[in-house]
Amino acid sequence: MSRISKTSERLIALASPLALLLAWEVAARTGGIDTRFFPAPTVIGQKALTMAASGELWEHLSASLLRLLLGSLLGGIPALALGILMGLYRPIRVAIDPLIAATYPIPKSAILPLILLIFGLGESSKIVMVALGVFFPVVINTLTGVLQIDRIYLDVGKNFGASRWQTFRTIALPGAMPSIMAGIKLGVGMGLILIAIAEMVGAKTGIGFMIWDAWQVLSVEIMYVGLVMIAILGFLITLLLNEVEMLVLPWRRDR
Question: Biggest alpha carbon distance in the chain?
């Protein structure tokens, strides 16, 4: 099977959303869709530029990004350590796995009222919501990655007298890294969803608050600006994580 070049891949990846936006614009201009609910992309873009010029957009964007970063660190680092420990030590896995299996299916948005009750309406509740969204994908994927490591590598490390820290650092962590990166991508994506939901309640800044506030005053263009910003954030974060993956997993660059 022939392979296309990286440049061609990038052009195709860029062309597909542009084609969708063009079709949307044409439909809006020709009356194919109701612009009260689906304003043209150019109208949304003009509103975004106006909000950016006034500083309003950057205020909301920076607030959401900071919460996303802190929540990802709060949920991701413990999940990474716990996932590796569960993969290396069966008693820990037997003890913790049922708890994860029982709590993972609970919709994280459904426990927002409880989070607000415990942590209040301040920044802590938003960060905790992101942390919960990041924690489960990272711990599950990390555990899966460690369990998929060939047992011979662990045996070799044991035979050469590797300490627990050396086993953790030189065998488990590198061996599970492909699954860990997949978990981080899923977790950050879930965190981005949850931060938007959390900001709709008890927040005065953030993309989620911006969308909710626009809905209350029926400002459809601002609602779409918020949705587009979330989409752009997700796209840019994915690109960033892909670059990080290429750095930590150089043997996957040709895939």
Answer: 73
Percent of the chain with pLDDT over 70: 95
Distance of alpha carbon 205 from alpha carbon 224, whole angstroms: 17
- The whole-number average pLDDT for the span 33-37 is 85
Angle at 213 between CA 210 and CA 219, to 5 degrees: 95
pLDDT digits (tens, 9 = 90+) for 175-221: 788 888 899 999 999 999 999 898 888 788 889 999 999 988 888 99
User: Angle between the 123-147 and 112-119 helix axes, to the nearest 10 degrees?
Assistant: 120
Locus of tokens 């993309």: 207
Matching residue, tokens 């029926």? 218
pLDDT of residue 1: 45
The pLDDT-based confidence of 14 (bands split at 50, 70, 90) is confident
Residue 217 phi, psi (nearest 5) = -105, 10
Helix (H), strand (E) at residue 179? helix 173-199
Helix %, strand %, coil % for the chain, to 5?
80, 0, 20
Q: Domains in the chain, start-ordered, CATH in brackets? A: 40-250 (1.10.3720.10)
Q: What residues have CB less than 8 Å from 61, skipping those under 6 apart?
A: 207, 229, 233
CA angle, 153 as apex, 148 and 154 as ends, to 5°? 85
Contact 211, 193 (CB under 8 A): no
